[in-house]
Amino acid sequence: MSIELALQKFPKEIRLKDGLRCRCRPLRKDDENAFHEFFMAVPSPERMFIKHRVTEPEVIRDWCRNIDLGRNLPLLALADGKILGSATLHQQLGGWKRHIGRVSVLVHPEFRGRGLAKTLINEIVEIARHIGLEKVEAEFIGEQEAAIKMFALLGFSNLLRLEDYVKDMQAISHDYVLMGLELITDEEYAGMG
User: Fold this and answer.
1) What is the pLDDT of residue 52?
2) pLDDT mean over 130-135
3) Which end of the chain is less enclosed by CB atoms within 10 A, N or C?
4) pTM for the complete prediction?
5) Nearest-CA neighbor of 142 among 157, 159, 162?
6) How far apart are the first and last CA of the chain?
7) What is the 3-state secondary structure (H, E, C) of 11-33?
8) Does residue 67 contact residue 103 with C-beta atoms inside 8 Å?
9) Can you give the pLDDT at residue 55?
10) Spatial strand order in the sheet of 100-107
11) What pLDDT shows up at residue 192?
12) Residues 6+ away with beta carbon under 8 Å from 30
């Protein structure tokens, strides 16, 4: 299935476990300011674990002006024009990892603990499954214990842990953790029954 077909169900309404309703849809060009504000709301100690310099407006501008949903699919949760969370499916369209997607997720500090990260990850995994990916993986810094636990509860397993392997934005070393999930693709669903 193509990415376009997989995205036909968006925008869609999602309801969090506390009853809050929000809209879920892919990133658009006009999200630039709200997306930057979203990242600025993340506490600076947490931003050190993000691979990109998201405090720099030109980084977010580039993401919003050069959207390629086939390579990087940011799925946003919004309410009243504010971005509450984002989950992204990263893909390599060729090469030896073309069958594997990478998942990342971030939730605005005010909206954590409501099941939003879990909901966004499930949406991204479903998209990955429907476009024919065979596996998804997620990368963490060793100290991200809550995120590692949540991904484990969603079926991801530990693939590897490398001690002092990565450095944050302040050049401090941390353990690198890679988790993965095997997907059942549409073709396998079609053969069931």
Assistant:
1) 82
2) 93
3) C
4) 0.89
5) 162
6) 21
7) CEEEECCCCCEEEEEECCHHHHH
8) no
9) 85
10) 12-15, 21-26, 72-79, 82-91, 100-107, 135-141, 173-182, 157-167
11) 46
12) 64
What span, in angstroms and rounded, lies between the C-alpha atoms of 176 and 167?
Answer: 9
Give phi and psi for 16, each to the nearest 5: -85, 165
Amino acid at 26: P
Place of tokens 């299935």: 1
CA distances from 13 to 9, 23, 106, 123, 132 (A): 10, 5, 19, 12, 25
- 69-83 pLDDT tens trace: 889 999 999 999 999
d(CA 164, CA 147): 19
- For residue 69, count other CB atoms closer than 10 A to its CB: 17
